[in-house]
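Note to self: the last two entries modelled the partners one at a time, which told us nothing about the interface. This time every component goes in together.
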Amino acid sequence: DGGITQSPKYLFRKEGQNVTLSCEQNLNHDAMYWYRQDPGQGLRLIYYSQIVNDFQKGDIAEGYSVSREKKESFPLTVTSAQKNPTAFYLCASQGYYNSPLHFGNGTRLTVT
Amino acid sequence: DQQVKQNSPSLSVQEGRISILNCDYTNSMFDYFLWYKKYPAEGPTFLISISSIKDKNEDGRFTVFLNKSAKHLSLHIVPSQPGDSAVYFCAASMNRDDKIIFGKGTRLHILP
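The predicted structure of the combined assembly is written out below.
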């Protein structure tokens, strides 16, 4: 059945290493989003993409990169330049304007 | 600067009573508002939305009220049930090319 898949659920990395979080959707949605959740901070937008081969920075894009080569996929790379990478990362998709976002179940990244 | 504000970090309500969650926004160009519910270590799930052309939308136990002049919306849950204990996020967007912005969330505790 349709949905958004984020993998893995838990990810551990050493400081200084880049890491890529996967997000795949089979909802045929054009728009995809990456948010980060920290305690007391709510959901903060990292990057979003309204269409294939195009994406925009959100409010906290520094230290992150994305690509949108396929409609179904929107991977997020957390680079070594991200000062506080440990967080819960959420991917979402949206079918059309003024429709709800559909979220994956998140990836918890821990960097030590 | 926060454009979507949820000023109550937490709220406790007796089971069976009404829960009222509040949200304020600063940008009068927002034209679509959503409420999400989130359990720990899961992605948010969509509850209900409202367009700026309406002032009320109802779906079962959930009703959202929009007061555009006050830039305020609220989510009413009645009657409150134990499964309603979760974090609730308010979100807003302004046009088809713009991003969806979330508040910091309110943790709702339903007391037995």
